[in-house]
Each structure stands twice: as C-alpha cells, then as structure tokens.
Amino acid sequence: MELKPILWMIIPCYNEQNVLPVTCEMFLGKINDLAAKGVISDDSRILFVNDGSSDDTWSIIRELTLRDTHFKGLSLSRNYGHQNALFAGLMEAKDSCDITISLDCDGQDDIDAIDRMISSYKEGYEVVYGVRSKRDKDGFIKRTTAEAFYRLMKILGAEIVFNHADYRLISSRALDEFSKFGEVNLFLRGLVPMVGFRSTTVLYERKARIAGESHYPLRKMLSLAFDGITSLSVRPIRLVSVLGFIISFISFLGVVWAIIQAFRGQTVSGWASMTCIICFVSGCQMLCLGIIGEYVGKIYLETKKRPRFIVDERLI
Ligand code: UDP
Ligand code: MG
Q1: Cα of 159 to ligand 1 centre, how many Å?
Q2: Closest Cα to atom 14, ligand 1: which residue?
Q3: Residue to substitute in 51, 74, 215 for testing ligand 1 pocket (most ligand atoms within 8 angstroms of CB)
Q4: Is the CB of 145 under 6 A from ligand 1?
Q5: Closest residue CA from atom 2 of ligand 1
Q6: Residue 48's beta-bridge partner residues?
Q7: Which end of the chain, N or C, is surrounded by fewer C-beta atoms within 10 Å?
Q8: Rounded to the nearest whole angstrom, what is the distance from the C-alpha of residue 62 to the centroid of ligand 2?
Q9: 3-state secondary structure labels for all residues of 36-86
Q10: Residue 102 in 3-state DSSP?
C-alpha cells in the first residue's frame, strides 16, 4: 500500500447540466485539498461518466477536461443506467489508480466523508461503504420503500449493507477481482460484498440535491429493487418448491378426505373419484414445478460465471 495513493473519483452523470458546474468545483477542491495535505497523490483524477445525456452534460465535461488535468471524461453511446455507467467508470479507472470512490454528481453524498474513507483504506480496508446516518432529507415514500427494500433483501438472503447506496471506496485490487464477475445485470451494492476482502463502513449525512431532479422515481426504484433481488437470490424459486411440497401434502389430505366421504355415503356418485384426481394431479404439478425450478435456479447461477474463489494473500 502506498503512502500517497492515487484516487479516482467516479461520477456518473445523466442530464446533469444544472448541477455539474457547481459540484465539479467541490470535487476539484477536495482533490486539491487532499493532495496539498499529502493524503493522496496529485495524480488523482475526477472521472465523469456521461450516461447518454440528452442535454449539455457532455460538452460541460469536455470543457472541464480542457481546463484542468484533474478532470477526465468518458461518454457512453446511450443511456445505460446508473449502475452500468458507474461500472464503466470503475473499469476505466482500475488500472490507473490505487483507489476509487464512486459518488453522485448532484452533491448529495457529503464529500467530507472521503477523508475518513481514505484513512480507513490506509488502515488496511479495501472496501469502505458510505452509510447514511439518517434519512430525514428523503420524502416519506422514498424512505419507507427504501428501508423496506433493505429488509426484504436481507430476508431473501442477499448480503447488502443497510442504508448504503453507491457511495463507496474500492481499491483497485478489489476491482481487478470484481472485473472477473461475468454477469450483465449489475446490482453493485449486492455484488461488491461478494468480492470479499476487508471492509468497513463510514457514516455520512446525505444532503438534498443541489439542483435538478432525481432520476430515480418510484418506478425506477422498484425496478432496481426487483433487479437486485432476482440477480442475487434464487430464494423466490425455492419458495415455489416449498409451496409445491405444501400443496402436495394438502392434496394428499384431500384424497384421504374424499375417500372417507365416499365410504360414508355422503357424496354424489363420481364426486370422490373426481376430487381424488384433481388433488393428485395438482399436487404432482406443483411438486414438479418446484423441482424444475431448482434446476432453473442452478442454471441461472451457473450462467453468471462468477469466480469460484478469490485469493486474499499468498505466502508461497
Ligand atoms: N444517473 C446515471 N444514469 C441514469 C440515472 C442516473 O448515470 O440513468 C446518475 C445521476 O446523474 C446521478 C446518480 O446516477 O449522479 C444518481 O442518480 P440520482 O441522483 O438521480 O438518484 P437519487 O440520488 O435521487 O437516488
Ligand atoms: Mg442523487
């Protein structure tokens, strides 16, 4: 680990012409300040990833790169979404730096937490998660849905850090390992813990957006949540299997019940045999669906081609 690590800030931007001119100064000020204090190298950079903006975002970024060598820009061919834009920036940066910090370009993530993230890195942590200390700046709906989402993820067995979004430090070594994950559906805050290595958290207060509007309305949040659950967990499929067993068992009871009723003579002729057949067949169907589901779940996990292990240290 170097004494003065090279830091790259990765900042995805989508239609942010209103905030970028303001926040770029904050980011540059931070880099200059840290470099002057000798905390980071002066070769540190601020990488803006233009995620197919339709406004002037890219021309603003272009001008910034001409103005100061600390600014860098990467423009994607179309709008790929926040997660993919961020991933593109991380992959671009990993070979040129020691650490990356990803943050929003709207000034919501308190940049003063960066100092604490870097000191955690110097203590030997390779991943430092920015965790929101409170959510009083969020509206009621955003807060309740977001917190419900973190709880649901936990129940479904996906390991994510509570109240952590995408403000985090990752070392380039962890990014190298992360680049081996073959999946196309990216849900970074679920995938980064999977990479492992020593990690810790840093608390920060999330501010209100400086200008412009959030690109995450409820509809997009739900789709991100659904993406997160389905790309990290096969438990929903397992639920079908469990349901299959329960329904088969109830069907078995139904068959017994129908036979008893028939012997007691309390039925119309033909009722018992019909009920038995319906119960038996529907029980079988649910059970088979569950078994097929288990295989589909396995195939799903296999297709991601995730690394089977990641080495931390070698003493060979
Ligand atoms: N963003 C992006 N592509 C998108 C949507 C958002 O790169 O399709 C960026 C956006 O410019 C911002 C970050 O992702 O820097 C987070 O988005 P936003 O601030 O709108 O979300 P919120 O903070 O409200 O959850
Ligand atoms: Mg934001």
Answers
A1: 23
A2: 82
A3: 215
A4: no
A5: 82
A6: 11, 73
A7: C
A8: 22
A9: HCCCCCCCCEEEEEECCCCCCHHHHHHHHHHHCCCEEEEECCCCCCHHHHH
A10: strand
What dihedral do alpha carbons 217, 226, 162, 300 form, nearest 10°? -150
Instruction: Compute the distance between CA of residue 125 and CA of residue 201 in angstroms, rounded to an integer.
Output: 10
Rounded to whole angstroms, how far apart are CA atoms 165 and 117? 15
The ligand whose atoms approach the alpha carbon of 214 most closely is 1
Given the CA of residue 49, which atom of ligand 1 is nearest to it? 7
Counting from 1 in the atom list of ligand 1, the atom nearest the Cα of 108 is 23
Average pLDDT over residues 61-77: 94
Q: Where are the domains positioned within the chain? A: 7-217+307-315, 235-304
Q: Which residue lies with its CA nearest to atom 1 of ligand 1?
A: 82
- The dihedrals phi and psi of 271, each to the nearest 5 degrees, come to -65, -45
Give residue-wise pLDDT tens across range 126-147.
Answer: 999 999 887 766 677 777 887 8
Q: Which residue's structure tokens are 């970028």?
A: 20
Which CATH number applies to 7-217+307-315? 3.90.550.10
d(CA 166, CA 86): 9
Alpha carbon distance 63, 60 (integer Å): 5
Amino acid sitting at position 162: F
Put simply, whether the predicted model's pTM sits higher than 0.85 gets the answer no
C-alpha 134 – ligand 1 centre gap (Å): 20
Residue 2 is predicted with a pLDDT of 55
Kindly state the average pLDDT of the residues 54-81: 93
Residue type (1 letter), 268: V
Which residues fall within 8 angstroms of residue 227, CB to CB, at 6 or more apart? 185, 187
The DSSP code sequence of 183-235 is: -SS--HHHHHHHH-SSEEEEEE-----SSS--S--HHHHHHHHHHHHHHH--H
CA of 122 to the centre of ligand 1 (A): 29
Residue closest via CA to ligand 1's atom 19 equals: 214
